[in-house]
Amino acid sequence: MAHDILIVDDERDICTLIAGILEDEGHTARRAHNSTEAIEAVRQRRPALVILDVWLQGSELDGLQILEVIRREDPPIPVVMISGHGTIDTAVSAIKTGAYDFIEKPFKADRLLLVVDRAIEADKLKRENLALRRRAGGEVTFVGSSSDAANVRAQIERVAPTGSRVLVTGASGSGKETVARLIHQGSKRADGPFVVVNCSTLPAERLEIELFGTDGETAADTLRVSGAFEMAHGGTLVLKEVADLPLPLQSRLARLLQEQSYARDGGKTKVEIDVRVLATTARDLQAEIAAGRFREELFHRLNVVGLRVPPLSERREDIPELAQDLLKRVADATGLPPRTIGEDTQAALQGHDWPGNVRQLRNVIERLLILAPPGGAPIRADVLPNDVSEDAPSVLRWEKGGEIMQLPLREAREVFEREYLLAQVTRFGGNISRTATFVGMERSALHRKLKSLGLHGGVPEGGAEPPV
Ligand SMILES: Nc1ncnc2c1ncn2[C@@H]1O[C@H](COP(=O)(O)OP(=O)(O)OP(=O)(O)O)[C@@H](O)[C@H]1O
User: Fold this and answer.
1) What confidence tens digit (pLDDT) does each residue in 423-446 have?
2) Fewer Cβ within 10 Å of end Cβ, the chain: N or C?
3) Pocket (CB within 6 angstroms of ligand 1)
4) Residue whose CA is at the smallest distance from ligand 1 atom 10
5) DSSP alpha helices (H): ranges in 136-276?
6) What ipTM was estimated for this complex?
7) pTM for the full model?
8) Which of 199, 359, 361, 366 to mutate to test the pocket of ligand 1 (most atoms within 8 A of CB)?
9) If you measure from the C-alpha of residue 178 to the centroid of ligand 1, how many angstroms do you get, rounded to a whole number?
10) Average pLDDT score over the chain
């Protein structure tokens, strides 16, 4: 494929020589002879690659300084350095600064073209990877301003740098993998690989190969050699739904965690690994141990530190912020214009129980964004799936119904107060003090009011603690 390549060299003959080689291959070659021309050329149009001489006579900035300027571009432009005999050391330190490779003068055309192709290909892969990561949800954060969410973040911060194994527990879709990713990002292994294996989705035989690899003799149908443990070397391996690991694999894993090495499947190769293992589960592992389905020794090896992610129904306060964050991420990923969420929609989202937790909320938000009528107006609750929209407090739906108009004032006021306070108590996760502050009542007066309205016994089903 033809690329736009910038050659920076004070020696015009060398520039012409390189340009000739590149143009013969169909590339476009631009030339600059000093730092001013080079930086201007980069600003004018982002080249696919810069070939940069280490030593530039009569230039304000030398090759290394230009490299630093170019590498600050976002995304960074790949650079191949050219070095003469006396400048190899500088070329090597240029690689440390981020240059892809260097070619030494005099060079052969083949060598030049090989390095150029490789540098462009490596850069393409890097950018594709970045784009995929961005599309997969961008920077990971544990969103939420409830005390529960703050507590999860504090635990992540404490445990991440220690290197300890962590068992992350919580209901399906509550954010366990997100927590694992944040632990990896906050650790000394952050630049190493982050590998996730879901133990519940693969048959036992396949899972064993996936984890421990194979030398290829027993599994003729697979070409894979390295297992996830090898791929995670120097980084973090997450074993998702670890309770689903078959018993023989549990024993093998327990041995591996003790010895930090294992024999590759189907062969005698001993593989030594340096991997931090994080495990997640939605099940109660103590109950699994009692039922003979989980090995106790493995539980203790994995559960050096335990971290529980609370379900969404225990932290309803986080729902508006999470919904807005998910809306932005879904909009980024799908290319749809970002929107805001209407009051009625927000109240319905907060009133719903979310058995599938944040993942289910994300799916509903995606649907909202796709189905919302065009225009910039806030998204209304009628776009929600029925089971969610019926959780919108009727106080926010009266504009459609008008049933309140059939009632005398005293009863209408009571219905209104009941619905309004119910919605507010739900919104604040059953926390009476915070609800009272928001609605502008004394805590004790709110208690009395709730009691008189028959709300003493509790917030709607699935809500947090009863309002007493
Ligand atoms: N606190 C949070 N802040 C932002 N996004 C979150 C949060 N918790 C979960 N998510 C998002 O919700 C989705 C599900 O989260 P995740 O995969 O971490 O859950 P899980 O508990 O590992 O799920 P499962 O056990 O079903 O695999 C992901 O898209 C994730 O980005």
Assistant:
1) 788 777 778 888 898 889 999 998
2) N
3) 137, 142-144, 170, 172-178, 240, 280, 282, 322, 325, 358-359, 362
4) 175
5) 147-159, 176-185, 204-212, 228-231, 247-259
6) 0.97
7) 0.64
8) 359
9) 5
10) 84
Cα–Cα separations (whole angstroms), residue 377 to 241, 326, 372, 374, 384:
41, 18, 9, 8, 15
Determine, yes or no, domain membership for 256: yes
- Rounded to 5°, angle at Cα 446 from 444 and 452: 105
Q: Does 231 map to a domain?
A: yes
Q: Which atom of ligand 1 is nearest to the CA of 179?
A: 18
**The Cα angle at residue 427 between residues 422 and 432, in degrees rounded to 5:** 70
pLDDT of residue 119: 92
pLDDT at 466: 39
pLDDT digits (tens, 9 = 90+) for 182-225: 999 999 998 888 899 999 988 888 888 888 877 655 444 434 35
CA 363 to chain centre: 16
Give yes or no: residues 242 and 379 share one domain.
no
Taking alpha carbons only, the member of 105, 104, 47 closest to residue 76 is 47
- Give a yes or no: residue 17 inside a domain: yes
Q: What is the distance in A from the centroid of ligand 1 to the CA of 55?
A: 51
Q: Are 237 and 277 spatial neighbours (Cβ–Cβ below 8 Å)?
A: yes
Residue at 178 is within a domain: yes
pLDDT in tens, 10-58: 999 999 999 999 999 999 999 999 999 998 888 877 889 999 999 898 8
The total of structural domains in the chain comes to 4
Tell which atom from ligand 1 comes closest to the C-alpha of 241.
Answer: 25
Atom nearest to 318 CA in ligand 1: 1
**Minimum CA distance residue for ligand 1 atom 18:** 175
Q: What is the 3-state secondary structure (H, E, C) of 361-411?
A: HHHHHHHHHHHCCCCCCCECHHHCCHHHHCCCCHHHCHHHHCHHHHCCHHH
For residue 412, the domain's CATH number is 1.10.10.60
Considering Cα of 339, then 342, then 347, then 351, what sign does the dihedral take?
negative
For residues 163 and 290, membership in a common domain is answered with: yes
Say how far apart CA 253 and CA 301 lie, in whole Å. 10
Regarding whether 80 and 35 lie in a shared domain, the answer is: yes
Residues 67 and 207 grouped into a single domain = no
